[in-house]
Specification:
The protein is α+β, with helices and mostly antiparallel strands. It is built from 9 helices and 13 strands. It has 2 domains: 148 residues, Aminopeptidase (3-Layer(aba) Sandwich); 154 residues, 3-Layer(aba) Sandwich (Aminopeptidase). Helix content is 25%, strand content 24%.
């Protein structure tokens, strides 16, 4: 594909954050109904570990210099799969998504070669209204592998909290105690090792990758069963702009699952709202999911409001598979907008024959 006359593609810098944010907000509004990204998220994406904007990102502008498309790779841990994200102004940049995807996939192949790997897995996300994007991913060799869903409930007139199951206790994390932080990390890391999305991180890496909005220490909890560590819940402040809180992860060790540990953590969290000037968060979470619209941030979980509603995001259990999102299917309503489908492809260390490199160089 050749860019229209006067349009240009270049590598973004931090000076482009406001322009990029405008593109993301337009893409968000089309996909999920409201802006779901802020300038800190853009900066975090451009400065994330294992990302070089001079090689891993593109910004396309029109003849007036207005940004209409942004693409970027992400790999928060530096191991495992790559996340490819192409966000466009739906009214002006839709034709740019496929060629920018092609260029990102070429870069994935280069990154595989740089790491001495024969291939890398690339993933991307699709919301229900993005049927054209779903078709372009399928054309590029991606297949749909799973979904994340946001759900909501009222927090008004919550019923009395039941007693926890016998032997189950929940306490706040002691954030100033490194042993407690290491225990939290061990529970989290162990609990998610049997999921297909887990990229193991040692304690130092995990701590260093915690975003600023994730360090809501007085809303992190540890659970025990008969005095033994069993579960952990991590909150964040990343949805305060929506008058909601968020739980990034809810982890239960395999030996203690289906014994009420997760429910006890969630109930404790729902009762732990703290006063503040900004809207106070609450939470709930189970499976690891990605927060917000962002494709480049760390995993996250359910979220809830301390106001009249509670919203959450979760990956449903295996076997729960509704009708697939297919190119050309009608745009969905509010509920469907809350479903994020994840697509995946395996990319080798060479550009596939016939791949359109386009004029985006």
């Amino acid at each position: 594909m050749t860019l229209p006359a006067g349009w240009s593609a270049r590598r973004p810098t931090l000076d482009d954050v406001p322009a990029i944010l405008a593109v993301v907000h337009a893409a968000d509004t089309f996909a999920v109904g409201y802006p779901d990204f802020d300038d800190e998220d853009v900066r975090s994406a451009l400065t994330a570990p294992f990302v070089d904007p001079a090689r891993d990102s593109w910004l396309v502008t029109d003849p007036d210099g207005t940004a209409v498309a942004w693409s970027i790779l992400a790999n928060p841990s530096g191991v495992g799969r790559e996340w490819v994200d192409v966000l466009v102004d739906p009214d002006r940049g839709a034709d740019l998504r496929a060629p920018l995807l092609a260029r990102l996939l070429e870069r994935v192949a280069e990154r595989a070669a740089e790491r001495g790997l024969p291939a890398l897995t690339a993933r991307a996300g699709v919301y229900a209204p993005e049927t054209r994007w779903a078709g372009e991913l399928a054309e590029a060799g991606f297949t749909r592998i799973k979904r994340y869903i946001r759900m909501s409930r009222s927090l008004a007139d919550l019923p009395a909290e039941p007693a926890p199951p016998p032997g189950v206790t929940v306490r706040p994390l002691r954030a100033d105690d490194e042993d407690d932080l290491r225990l939290f990390h061990r529970i989290y890391d162990t609990a998610f090792r049997d999921t297909p999305d887990h990229d193991p991180l040692d304690f130092a890496q995990w701590r260093d990758l915690l975003p600023s909005y994730g360090k809501v220490w007085d809303e992190w909890f540890l659970a025990e069963v008969d005095g033994e560590p069993a579960g952990a819940l991590q909150s964040s402040d990343q949805a305060l702009d929506q008058d909601r809180g968020w739980v990034r992860t809810l982890s239960v060790l395999p030996a203690y699952r289906r014994r009420g540990v997760g429910a006890a953590l969630l109930r404790r969290r729902s009762r732990s709202t703290r006063p503040r000037a900004a809207p106070a968060p609450g939470s709930a979470s189970t499976w690891p999911t990605r927060p917000r619209r962002s494709r480049s941030t760390a995993p996250s979980g359910w979220w809830r409001s301390t106001g009249p509603t509670c919203t959450s995001a979760a990956c449903p259990p295996r076997g729960c598979d509704p009708a697939p999102l297919v190119p050309g299917s009608p745009s969905a309503g509010t509920a469907a907008r809350r479903t994020l489908w994840v697509w995946e492809t395996r990319y080798a260390d060479a550009v596939p024959v016939g791949r359109d490199r386009s004029s985006v160089t």
